[in-house]
Amino acid sequence: MEIRSVDVHDDEQLRAWYDVYRACALDERDYPTAWTWPETVAAFRRPDKGNRRDAVVGEQSGGTVAASILVYPLLDNTHAVYAETAVLAQWRRRGIGTAMVDDIVQRSRTAGRRTVIAEVVYPFDAAEDHPFRAFARRLGFVEALSDVHRILDLPVDDPRIDRLLARATPRHRDYRIVTWLDRCPDEFLEGFGELYSALVVEAPMGDLELEEEVWDAERLRENEETRKAQGRSTFAAAAVASDGSLAGYTELVVPQHDPGQVYQWGTLVRRAHRGHHLGLALKSVNLRVMQQACPHARVVHTWNADVNAAMTAVNEAMGFARSSGWGSSSASSDRTVLTRNLGAMVWC
Fold this sequence. Notes:
The chain is about 30% helix and about 30% strand. Helix 5 runs antiparallel to helix 8. It contains nine helices and 13 strands.
């Protein structure tokens, strides 16, 4: 098998990578999620101050049978690389996945990174013995964080949202909630960057070793332009404290090229402002705004760590449920984030 980098500016090469990625992302899932082609093109080709993305393919018998992506943080967490690999179902159990992971490890070492962070996805009822999980363990990865995929069927009626807000509002009368579409108002940009930066250190991250990210005004604006190019609409809500600082935020992303789908992205309430039901209020207000603007929306996807009891409670109060066919009461997650230390003699 030949493993090679993809010229992401070459449509034919990138499309071959994408077709494998998408086929594997949609494989055997009741509520599959995957980037669309326009989202992929924009992610790889537009400027990104914070990350470098590499696409890699594995070719066998004249066709593309495997695909990897490596994301190298450039401003923070430069010890790590985020990586994924996928092999078409009919080509599995032939050593191709192992070769692709070995390639990821070598590329990461060459780039001076000491930790590979990856994910495996599997049904709840196969959490312990699913082959994807066993594969990762065999190659030296250890589990650092378990995520739960939940979905919320839409629309959520106004009386239900009213009840959620009536429950939350008396607890945060010293705060006001503001919303915006796509572009953060200039007056909140610095505070919004601070929230973005703090997410990976203030939200429960299990055993992942991450430092605060760098999200300055330039990077935030660049990110907004990339989402626009991808055809994504971003609905944001933020809590403003009495001193004018931002206490928390949440985002819903609606992809133009994947009708009906909505993605719950980051939600964070700073530690000093917790205990006021701000998370529930932010998500409820934002949901209402998004639904009014996007009546075609049919389902919201969210993932949160199974150790994040507070956010799990908020999601369940809103009506999120574990995705059908991918859950059971006997297991905790359908996605595990794993790490592999490249600097140790023994994989940890």
